[in-house]
Design brief:
Helix content: 55-70%
Strand order of the largest sheet: 2-3-1-4-5
Structural class: alpha+beta
Radius of gyration: 26 Å
Shape: elongated
Number of strands: 5
Largest sheet: 5 strands, antiparallel
Order of helices and strands: HEHEHEHEEHH
Number of helices: 6
Distance between the termini: 100 Å
Length: about 170
């Protein structure tokens, strides 16, 4: 049994997590081996996120203190939260991948900043390219006109060389 002091410490810790997060996903999980959950936690830590299980009553208190209108107590079963600190997309991708491997793991809904997201929106978020992929696409888009211009300029030179070689053969 948790003491009142320990419960207050857990609520303060949850409030601190809520103030630092970029994205937060509420999940249902049951019947998943601890080893699989630990592997999932390691996978999340690689992308700047973490998975926590906090008592619903304490989580509800922390959410209420942060003025987040979510009814955690009304949720059935065990509830876990995925907290993304660095990226919004990478934790969603990791959660969707883990959900495919473990049928009892489901994302209920999420918070992106302070706006609510349903499961469909979380899936759409997981399908977005990562920041690095987007930057790579941007570099490709910026490089394309320069490469095309260089191709046009070299085409004129190539044509001149071919004409001169044909004249030299005659």
């Amino acid at each position: 049994m948790l003491t009142k002091l320990k419960k207050e410490e857990i609520v303060r810790s949850a409030e601190e997590i809520l103030s630092k997060q970029k994205v937060l996903f509420f999940t249902k999980f049951s019947g998943i081996a601890v080893s699989k959950l630990n592997a999932f936690r390691r996978e999340l830590s690689k992308v700047g996120a973490e998975f926590k299980v906090i008592r619903k009553t304490l989580l509800q208190r922390a959410l209420k203190n942060k003025s987040v209108a979510v009814d955690v107590l009304g949720m059935q079963g065990e509830v876990g939260i995925i907290i993304g600190y660095e990226s919004e997309v990478d934790p969603a991708k990791a959660a969707m991948k883990f959900g495919k491997d473990n049928q009892t793991f489901k994302i209920i809904f999420g918070l992106l900043g302070e706006s609510m997201m349903d499961t469909g929106q979380v899936v759409a978020l997981a399908k977005l390219p990562t920041r690095d992929q987007l930057l790579g696409q941007l570099v490709g888009v910026l490089q394309a006109p320069i490469a095309n211009f260089q191709g046009v300029l070299s085409g004129n030179m190539r044509g001149l060389v071919m004409v001169l070689s044909q004249i030299a053969k005659k």
